[in-house]
Structures are given as structure tokens and as C-alpha cells.
Amino acid sequence: MALDFADRELPGGLLLRLRREEDAAALAAAYTRNRGHLAPWDPTRSEDFFTEAGQRTRTLELLALRSLETAVPLVIVDGDEIAGGIDLSNIVRGAFQSAMVGYWLDRGHTGRGLASVALTALLDAARDDYALHRVQAATLLANHASQSVLTRAGFERIGVAPNYLKIAGRWQDHVLFQKILHD
């Protein structure tokens, strides 16, 4: 059984919901619109990533991971547009009961607390619906905005991982954060 997620209303009439195959065109438009905005924080993307076909393929991959209960891919919707995304990934069960979280926002929706609200909603589901114990996140050293989002959501800094991810074409150090969901 796939991990369910109940739609959540966000401030400003936005909606947090599961990603769907039908979102491919809106996702392609959002990523194209935000290409420069996201480039310093993202892996180098192929041209196909910015197309409807590329987003349909990526969405189907994420939905397949959801059916395996290893991911929960969500989008933030503003009318007919995608305003961002937030995902739980690498869900591990057994003694670990842990996952990673990642998120992005359209440049027109930053600075209003939307990422914090969406993250808090996903953390509630991670604790209450998915019975996870711990969620981890990583940010580039210079991504102070994302670090603030994590801190507001109750994450604690646990260290720095050298050469952690290949972002913007090079291996870069990341600050690691975690939030323990159960005592």
C-alpha cells in the first residue's frame, strides 16, 4: 500500500498535495520559470528535465517509489501553477525509521513562510501517519534561507558533511540537520 497524504491548505489559498502524472506540464513550466533561481542549489539538470516529457518521467519514477513506500512526493499548488515541491525520500524502516526531506519554492513565493508551513505539515504526516522517528535534511553552507526554514521547523544542526552532494556541477559541503519526531 502506498503512503497516503491528505491534502493540506496553505496560506494564501495554496494547496499541498501528492504529485500526479497530470502535473507534468505545470512542473515543467515551474522549473523552466525558476531555472536560474534554483540552479545554485540543485544538481546540474539535463535539458529534458525542463520538458513536460521529462517531468512526466520523473513523476512516474517518484510515484513508483511511493508505491514501494520509500518516498512521498508532494507539490505546492497555486491555482493552475506549481509553486513548489517538498518530498520525503529514502524512507528506511526497521530500527532506523528515518527519511530525508527536500524542498523548493518558486521565486515568486519565497519570503512568506510557505516553506516552513509546508515542511511542518509534512513532518506531522511523517510522525502521525508514517510513524517515522527521524527526518534529516542537508543544505549548502551558504543556503541560509533554507537553514532558517529548518530551524523554524525544529530541526537541529548535527554537523557538516564534506563533499556531500554534487550541486551546480561540483561536489559541495553541506550542513546536516535532523528532527527527532518521537521521544
TrEMBL record:
<comment type="similarity">
    <text>Belongs to the acetyltransferase family. RimJ subfamily.</text>
</comment>
<keyword id="KW-0012">Acyltransferase</keyword>
<feature type="domain" description="N-acetyltransferase">
    <location>
        <begin position="14"/>
        <end position="182"/>
    </location>
</feature>
<keyword id="KW-0808">Transferase</keyword>
<dbReference type="InterPro" id="IPR000182">
    <property type="entry name" value="GNAT_dom"/>
</dbReference>
<protein>
    <submittedName>
        <fullName>Ribosomal-protein-alanine N-acetyltransferase</fullName>
        <ecNumber>2.3.1.267</ecNumber>
    </submittedName>
</protein>
<dbReference type="InterPro" id="IPR051531">
    <property type="entry name" value="N-acetyltransferase"/>
</dbReference>
<dbReference type="Pfam" id="PF13302">
    <property type="entry name" value="Acetyltransf_3"/>
</dbReference>
<dbReference type="GO" id="GO:0005737">
    <property type="term" value="C:cytoplasm"/>
</dbReference>
<dbReference type="GO" id="GO:0008999">
    <property type="term" value="F:protein-N-terminal-alanine acetyltransferase activity"/>
</dbReference>
<dbReference type="InterPro" id="IPR016181">
    <property type="entry name" value="Acyl_CoA_acyltransferase"/>
</dbReference>
